[in-house]
Write a structure and sequence with these properties.
mainly beta; five-stranded mixed β-sheet; four-stranded antiparallel β-sheet; about 45% strand
């Protein structure tokens, strides 16, 4: 066995085996000292979405550090710029692995909607003009959302290709059913369910 002594820089050693008066040929052994890889905290976030997917980015990258993004079998490389570093837009459901110069510093990221992007659909309308639940108001509703509403007999009571959160004030008491369709981050989403209208004026 051969033990390399403490080194402060890279060096080359020559090793030979000795047995009695016999000596083998010398073999060169190169001992290299590499700079230590400092840890880089990786923090990737998801932001606004478009028809191309959700924007993924590193909010504060380090200048001089390379970042890597693995998508399926594809590896993408980005140079840190000292500020926000865009990693591109990715469809919902995409699994990403983001790492820095040191492969040990990595995170897994599943691309999904932010809470602020998901429509919140109520199931109660109290049309009494008290400014609370007076209409079928859907929070975080994307533009040009298609909404159809049916009464308990299955007849269509309302339909719009650009719903403006304004249905329900003139409707009679009863149970209704809705179908909502919209595009979000390049994906068509469907929601359906029931809602109750309580209108004290009828």
């Amino acid at each position: 066995t051969f033990s390399i002594p403490y080194l402060e820089k890279s060096d080359t050693f020559y090793v030979a085996a000795l047995k009695e008066e016999c000596r083998s040929q010398r073999t060169a052994v190169v001992a290299s000292i590499f700079p230590s890889m400092h840890r880089v905290e990786v923090k990737a976030e998801m932001g606004i979405c478009s028809s191309y997917g959700i924007h993924v980015y590193i909010p504060s990258s380090q200048k001089g550090i390379r970042y890597y993004l693995m998508e399926n079998e594809s590896l993408h490389s980005y140079a840190g710029n000292g500020s926000l570093l865009s990693l591109g837009n990715y469809p919902i459901g995409t699994s990403l692995k983001v790492s820095a110069a040191n492969p040990c510093d990595s995170i897994l990221l599943d691309v999904e909607y932010l809470d602020s992007q998901i429509p919140v659909i109520p199931n109660l309308v109290t049309a009494n003009e008290d400014q609370k639940n007076d209409a079928f108001y859907i929070s975080n509703l994307p533009s040009y959302s298609h909404l159809s509403i049916y009464n308990s007999w299955g007849a269509e009571a309302f339909s719009s290709d650009d719903y403006q959160n304004n249905w329900g004030l003139e409707e009679k008491n009863g149970i209704y059913f809705y179908e909502l369709r919209y595009e979000l981050c390049g994906k068509i989403e469907h929601h359906s369910g029931w809602l109750q209208v309580i209108n004290n004026r009828y």
